[in-house]
Specification:
With 425 residues, the protein is α/β, with parallel strands linked by helices. 50% of the residues lie in helices and 8% in strands. The chain contains 20 helices and seven strands. Strands 2-3-4-1-5 form a five-stranded parallel β-sheet, sandwiched between helices. It has a two-stranded parallel sheet with strand order 6-7. Helix 10 packs across helix 11 and helix 10 runs parallel beside helix 12.
Length: 425
């Protein structure tokens, strides 16, 4: 039914008002017929293909479709030849819709460029991937980009009611009584996926026997049976993968265990590999907690090993244990000092090793040859001094006053620094 109910005109198109609303650029392009090459990107079932079909019906042009999974340069050449013939004979423009355009490699995408540049083809590309990662720069520079969002609940409710009322393409030929709770359940559990909502409602209606009056009663219980698992918009390769992971990390960094658990579970429910989540938590243990709680790295590593030994679903406890612990730990990013040091060395070089820190054996060979004193003899061995510490220069002369490590304001680092200050006194 999702295919049958596909909008046939701009007036029928529901949702994406930020792109297709009155006065918006794409709306004006369609109304005036001045369509340039565009890329539509967004999650599955956000209306990309439907919008392309609407454009094809609103614009006086030949609409040709290629699917990047099935078609390649050979099929593109055939489209180009047909477009040339069409333009020569009756001056008709050709709009080429390439579905899943991110599937084309660089050479295939480059093959489009001269024909877009010459105006022979007007491209409408659809992709679920971030075009800034998946499409080549020259193609992006020749296209307008429009991002589509998942349908919200109010949009889905409009489309569900339209499908119930439509006697030609929808379910209007049936006598249906559906409760508001049932409709809302379909709309909410679809999580922005109109195809999922429409198909679930169709299944509910078709599998419900009419009562004595000939009516099919769709209650909340019937709706729950027809769409039992809430759809989770998540792709392990798409933008959502990075958005969810970012929200997860930032929630732990912000010491919000509830939000951290939420985003972690959203990733798990969407099919994320738990090992990826553990890897992110291992990095977090040193990057965001570090010296504030040195045992964090040890605990996460132990939780990961326990996960590998026990497996799901019991291993969910280990994920939860690590997630909550990291969220509640004091935070310090002082371990990030390493990147400042690396940057400094790359810009200015490592400097010269102070004589007293150089290898004693190598210096001894030089001493024997030149007769000069062994500079390594000036090294002060800390274990020969009280509290195993002695004041001594360890950095090169070029950087002797440089300080990269900046202590975090947490009890552990404050305790260490207090101990160091006492030593230096």
């Amino acid at each position: 039914m999702a295919t049958r109910m596909r909008p046939q005109s701009l007036e029928e198109y529901t949702g994406q008002s930020h792109v297709i609303g009155e006065g918006k650029l794409l709306h004006r392009m369609i109304r005036t017929g001045n369509i340039g090459s565009i890329i539509l990107y967004g999650p599955p079932s956000s209306g990309k293909t439907t919008l392309a079909h609407v454009i094809s019906k609103e614009i006086d042009a030949r609409f040709t479709i290629l699917n990047a999974v099935l078609d390649g340069v050979k099929e593109l050449r055939a489209v180009v030849e047909e477009a040339k013939t069409r333009a020569r004979l009756n001056d008709t423009r050709t709009i080429l819709f390439v579905d899943e355009i991110h599937r084309w490699n660089k050479a295939q995408q480059d093959a489009l460029l001269p024909h877009i540049e010459s105006g022979l083809l007007t491209l409408i590309g659809a992709t679920t991937e971030n075009p800034f990662y998946s499409l080549v720069g020259p193609l992006l520079s020749r296209c307008q980009l429009f991002e589509l969002h998942p349908f919200d609940v109010s949009d889905i409710l409009i489309l569900l009611r339209r499908a119930i009322a439509d006697k030609e393409r929808g379910l209007g030929k049936f006598s249906v009584e559906i409760t508001n709770d049932a409709l809302l359940h379909f709309a909410e559990f679809a999580a922005g996926d109109i195809r999922n909502a429409l198909n679930a409602m169709e299944m509910a209606i078709l599998t419900t026997n009419p009562n004595a009056e000939g009516n099919r009663i769709i209650s909340l219980d019937v709706a729950k049976e027809s769409i039992q698992k809430r759809n989770v918009r998540f792709s392990r390769q798409g933008d959502e993968h990075y958005h969810y992971a970012s929200a997860f990390i930032k929630s732990m960094r912000g010491s919000d265990p509830d939000a951290a658990l939420h985003w972690m579970c959203a990733m798990l429910e969407g099919g994320e590999d738990p090992n990826f989540i553990f890897r992110r938590m291992l990095i977090f243990s040193s990057e965001d907690i570090g010296m504030a709680e040195p045992k964090a790295l040890e605990l996460v590593n132990a939780a990961h090993q326990s996960f590998e030994k026990c497996g799901m679903p019991e291993a969910l406890y280990f994920l939860s244990h690590a997630c909550i612990y990291l969220s509640l730990c004091p935070k310090s990013n002082s371990t990030g000092a390493i990147f400042e040091v690396l940057s400094n060395i790359r810009k200015k070089g490592p400097g010269t090793v102070p004589p007293h820190l150089r290898d004693k054996t190598a210096n001894k060979l030089k001493t024997n040859y030149t007769g000069q004193p062994n500079a390594s003899d000036d090294y002060k061995y800390p274990h020969s001094y009280p509290n195993n510490w002695v004041e001594q220069q360890y950095l090169p002369d070029e950087y002797k006053d440089q300080r990269w490590y900046k202590s975090g304001s947490n009890p552990v680092e404050e305790r260490f620094n207090k101990w160091l200050r006492e030593l230096k006194k």
